[in-house]
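Worked example

This section walks through a single chain of length 191. The input is the sequence exactly as stored; nothing has been trimmed or padded.
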Amino acid sequence: MCGGIIPVIAVSELVRRSTIRLCGGRGRISTQLSSRHIHAGQAHWKDFGREVAAECRETLRCTEGLRVGAVRRRGAPQSLHRTRKDVYSTLIARTESELQVSDSLAMVFMDGDGSDTTYRATHRNLKLSARRVVEDAVLIDSKHSQLIQMADLVAWSANACVDPHLGNKFAWDWYAKHLLERDPRRKPMPI
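Given that input, the structure is written out below as tokens.
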């Protein structure tokens, strides 16, 4: 908790994929590479992306007072929309309970442009006079927000931890190694 406010950050599939592109060497966060990332005239974007991700994870790990966390749920691919809606509703209900106990308020920031109204319905279904999450989710394009980009890195690291496969082997320990000490629950929680 930071100053009595629990930051709740939900990350969209689009942002998750952009982190995959960055860590996999396909995303471009810079137009130039330092000489240490160029070998025999070949640019090694993947190495650069992973180095940037490592610095970001270390910054998150060392930020006093910061709390991170992740929730997860397995669902059938054909039910993805419903699963996301249910996970978000459950997360907000849990957050509301925690905020009630600590007599705190919070806001939710998400990647998006407002075209998906699924998340808004969750907030509108809460009793207005008792809401601890004081506003509908604030939607911000991740291209313009370091906060959302860091949330994506947390979510992507959690995903690599709970769904390990050869394509993300390099990141299997990212959550445990860098983010665990900032997660009060110590692991991505099923919800």
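What to look for: Strands lie at 8-10, 38-39, 42-43, 71-72, 108-111, 138-140, 189-190.
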